Amino acid sequence: MNPSTLRSPAPPTARNRVVVVGQGYVGLSLAVQAAEAGHGVVGFDVDEQRVAQLVIGTSYVEDIPSPRLRTQLAAGAYRASSDPVDCAAFDIAVITVPTPLREGRPDLSHVVGAARMLGGFLRPGATVVLESTTYPGTTEELVGPILETASGLVAGRDFHLGYSPERIDPGNPRWNLENTPKVVSGINPVSLKQIHEFYGSIVDTVVPVTSCGTAELTKLLENTFRHVNIALVNELAMFAHELGIDVWEAIDAAATKPFGYLRFVPGPGVGGHCLPIDPSYLSWWAERTSGRAFRFVELANDINSHMPDYVVRRLIQGLNLREKPVKGSRVLLLGLAYKPNTSDARETPAAQVAQSLLAMGADVCAADPHLHHAVPTQADALHAVRRVTADAEELAGADAVVLLTDHDAFDYDAIAAHSAWVLDCRRRLSGANIDVL
Predict the structure, then answer these.
(1) Calculated CA dihedral for residues 221, 224, 229, 231, nearest 10 degrees
(2) Cα separations (Å) of 435 from 241, 297, 429?
(3) pLDDT of residue 45
(4) Is residue 196 helix, strand or coil?
């Protein structure tokens, strides 16, 4: 079979024929949720290997267990495809493709490609929603004109168009797609009404805003808020360590205040799409539109992007105190994913830590119960790291253990008992052989 034509069985008659372009952490979650709500869904992705997994009911996203996916496949409510023809005759199409940075500038090539493809199938009365994170103006100034050119239709008159920022938090046991409020917008009232009704059929709470630009800015604001506050506590952690003050105790104490404070904690760096990338979209847009730099974002970028370097410096200091050079020392990294209890290694700070240590001649190995070789890491440095299990032998054989991602699956008692020395970047351990970031 030609993998470009891989597809699941055709869906039965449903409330809407929905196409979700992009089947990553956001798109697959949305597609399955929409199928469960009664829509007939095509999950489209250009990655043929990814589609091949979905066709046989194998999920690569923890939030969508394979049995849940197979239920919708068996019911014919969801089908996966890498053939654009399967996107024809849609009622609603949602774009959930990546929006990376290229040399510090937004790369919307995936959005452009998705819009051109959908435009060829656009019919009067259909709806297109952009969910990919981007700068204000993208929906109306970029996506709309592409759809109009490809279809010969007029946005707002012949078809509906809007933006709804994704709020997927992989591995979050409390907040999921269904119970997280969904911000929606449209280029006109009719578009907003259609988009509101669609998302209202699959989530508990819909939050309409007056313009697509407002919705696009909402997403950037949410992630920039986190980015700036994480940078604050990261820099504070470095100063507190130099002064011999326990920054974690101070954070815990401050968190007892019932108003005017939100708890953020230090770490080895930020990862995923949201924090390393999204605030830079806001900074780029602000400078392009106003001519002024967004200094908060630039400062936060500088602090958070250098946290892996600080982890390496702390590791070097710890080895020096134990009269061990970095070169030749065995360093065991615990956790490669960027956040706990997921296999999501997008923009993971572990890659930068590993790359620096390998460049200095360290013998680097890593354990991650969620991330294995079959899962793409998007980080070349991680492919050069030998994978091990964090058992007693590996822990005891390491000159230094670095806890980068605090997966619940790790045996923390064993880590503390068998490791000669641990640099704990997540404050999960205590003991005479433990140093906390």
Answers:
(1) -170
(2) 10, 30, 9
(3) 97
(4) helix
How far is 275 from 301, CA to CA, in rounded Å?
9
* Banded pLDDT at 6 (limits 50, 70, 90): very low
Which residue did the predictor score with more confidence, 14 or 133? 133
List, for residues 285-309, the tens digit of each pLDDT value.
888 888 887 888 888 889 999 999 9
Cβ-proximal residues to 36 (8 Å cutoff; 6+ apart), any chain = 72, 77, 202
The length of the chain, given as a count of residues: 437
Helix ranges restricted to H, 292-390: 295-305, 307-321, 349-359, 380-383
| Helix and strand totals (H; E) in the chain | 16, 16
Active site positions, annotated: 274
Contact criterion met (CB below 8 Å) for 119 and 147: yes
The count of other CB atoms within 10 Å of the CB of residue 173 is 8
- Which residues are 161's β-sheet partners? 128
- Distance CA(105)–CA(280), nearest Å, equals 8
Measure CA of the first residue to CA of the last residue in the chain; give whole Å. Answer: 52
Give the Cα separation of 229 and 72 in Å (integer). 40
Q: Hunting for tokens 């539109």 — which residue is that?
A: 289
For the segment 322-333, the average pLDDT, to the nearest whole number, is 96
What does the alpha-carbon distance between residue 247 and residue 236 come to, in Å, rounded to a whole number?
A: 7
pLDDT digits (tens, 9 = 90+) for 215-237: 999 999 999 999 999 999 999 99
Q: Which residue has the tokens 């400062």?
A: 299
Helices 307-321 and 349-359, axial angle in degrees (round to 10):
50
Predicted structure pTM score = 0.87
Give the H or E element holding residue 249.
Answer: helix 247-254
Q: Which residue has the tokens 């290229």?
A: 102
